[in-house]
Amino acid sequence: MLDLLRLLAGAIILSIASYTDFKKRIARNELWIVMAAIGIILLPFSHYEWPKVVISILITLPIAFSLFLFGMGGADAKALIALSFLVPLFPKIGIFPLWKAPVLFPFPLIIFINSLLLFLAIPFFLLFYNIAKKNAEFPYCFFGYKMKAEKARHVWSMESIVDGKRKKSILPQKNVDIASFGDEEIWVTPKVPFFIPLTIGYIISFLLGDVLYKIISLFT
Fold it and tell me: E strand or H helix at 2, and its extent?
């Protein structure tokens, strides 16, 4: 029951963060305070082995801080810290997670890795989309898609104008006035906040478990 509450609370808070980050490029600190507070309130009622809880938190905190130092968004790092209090150990809801595996990482890190796998899969989804639209121009089809500049919303341009000529790049061109392209089609890359795959990865972690371990086990 408590793990079901953790699933629902975490999914709701992360969904709110995904929405505000997508719309306004911000995720409020209050979300992580609430998430951590819920976790702390539930801890005394959980049948956890306290040494494992402490170890999980002590491992997750410095990793989150290190990821922040190496370029991870501050809100993403705070979310990972809050998750270390909400779900420090592997949950159990009936038959879930389906994939039982040795606990190689604290559960918050399993969530992070599952989310990262989803994020890294985006180029392949873009490839299939571009093939279907007959826009399979390499390597740009792995990083974005084509659309009318006048309809471009919540995207970065992958094109810029240099010396009067259009120049494409696999990297987002953040200082480009997309409106200057008029009604022409341009390559764009979506502004996908990491909170979106993190939210999906959170749910997947509860339902499936350690996805990376399962993938590795298929080849060993």
Answer: helix 2-24
- Find out whether 36 and 86 touch, Cβ atoms under 8 Å: yes
CATH number for region 2-120+193-217: 1.20.120.1220
Confidence (pLDDT) at 207: 96
**What is the pTM assigned to this prediction?**
0.86
Beta strands in 90-199 (DSSP E): 145-148, 155-162, 165-173, 185-190
**How remote is the C-alpha of 93 from its chain's centroid?**
23
Amino acid at 66: S
Secondary structure of residue 206 in the 3-state scheme: helix
Domain range annotation of the chain: 2-120+193-217, 122-190
Q: CA 162, CA 169: separation in Å to the nearest integer? A: 12
Q: What is the mean pLDDT of residues 198-217?
A: 94
